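TA notes, week 10

Several of you asked for a full example with nothing omitted. So below is the full record: structure tokens for the whole chain, then the designed sequence directly under it. When grading your own attempts, check the secondary structure regions first.
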């Protein structure tokens, strides 16, 4: 069932859910917003059975936005500033409201220990938080190393247009690569807050003359996404500070050059095995790391084997088993 169903006909929606033993919500604030109306609290209050909520984005501080809790002043000035903040950032204002209500959940699901640690720091009961790593599919085919310099390398990333992704670094890295390359951003906009960012990216691509080399696909069906991922030689994660996981970043990847501060999430990913390659700081060193990786058949083979082992450990079947076990536990409580 979709949030739009609740917005259109609440009685039918809630009647259907009342027949369940528990309800599992895939949380995304924008799903429950319509203009200035926030339907999430009302939906949760009308669901009379146990609720499990999966959180896909967790932040210590919201990226690129002045923290609401840092607003200072006396009444009524401070109250006016808070109202203006809420109107400028409706997505994050809703997120903060829901967080203060503990997401109205009997149990929470996150995708990494790092995310669980953040929630625990914010006062959530760690016993109510379950870590279920994102599942991945096996590759449908193995992308061979680049043997033909004329064809070049295929790089890419997946997910929504995201202000946490370091696009400036990405453009500077691509501009330093020698030889031919193509880059695919498999995904598009999720919320109106990021429309300006998308326009800036399109403007930068045009200014650099990369329209035939740099593609932002927008939303694509799963089979097209998988096909594009299979074509990639290198999957790039160049976040300014990743405190979340969007798409399963290890899925189908030949290898990844990962540039970010070394922190808990990075170390957690690296602990899975040699499927992540950490690049030194800066665009020049990152570009050199990519070029060296493409020509290192032994390293590529090792990363491919590590990715396959990860896929066996965190399959969709395993994710399903853990999720069913969580359902049974929550229902029994």
């Amino acid at each position: 069932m979709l949030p739009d169903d609740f917005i259109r006909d609440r009685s039918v929606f809630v009647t259907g859910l009342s027949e369940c033993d528990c309800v599992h919500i895939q949380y995304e604030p924008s799903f429950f917003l319509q203009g200035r109306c926030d339907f999430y609290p009302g939906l949760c209050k009308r669901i009379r059975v146990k609720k499990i909520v999966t959180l896909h984005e967790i932040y210590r501080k919201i990226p690129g936005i002045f923290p609401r809790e840092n607003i200072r002043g006396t009444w009524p000035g401070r109250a006016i500033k808070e109202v203006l903040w809420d109107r400028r950032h409706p997505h994050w204002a809703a997120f903060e409201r829901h967080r203060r209500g503990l997401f109205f959940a009997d149990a929470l699901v996150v995708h990494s220990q790092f995310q669980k640690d953040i929630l625990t720091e914010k006062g959530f009961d760690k016993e109510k938080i379950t870590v279920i790593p994102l599942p991945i599919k096996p590759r449908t085919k193995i992308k061979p190393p680049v043997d033909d310099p004329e064809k070049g390398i295929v790089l890419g990333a997946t997910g929504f247009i995201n202000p946490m992704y370091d696009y400036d670094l990405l453009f500077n890295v691509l501009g330093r690569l020698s030889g031919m390359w193509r880059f695919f951003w498999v995904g598009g906009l999720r919320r109106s807050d990021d429309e300006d960012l998308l326009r800036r990216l399109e403007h930068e691509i045009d200014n650099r003359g990369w329209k035939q080399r740099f593609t932002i696909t927008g939303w694509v069906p799963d089979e097209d996404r998988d096909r594009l991922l299979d074509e990639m030689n290198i999957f790039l994660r160049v976040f300014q500070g990743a405190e979340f996981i969007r798409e399963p970043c290890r899925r189908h990847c030949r290898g990844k050059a990962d540039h970010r501060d070394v922190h808990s999430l990075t170390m957690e990913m690296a602990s899975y095995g040699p499927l992540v390659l950490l690049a030194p700081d800066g665009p020049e060193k990152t570009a050199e790391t990519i070029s060296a990786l493409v020509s290192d058949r032994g390293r590529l083979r090792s990363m491919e084997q590590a990715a396959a082992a990860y896929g066996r450990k965190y399959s969709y079947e395993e994710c399903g088993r853990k999720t069913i076990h969580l359902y049974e536990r929550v229902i029994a409580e």
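Confidence is low (pLDDT under 50) at residues 242-262. Use that as a sanity check on your answer.
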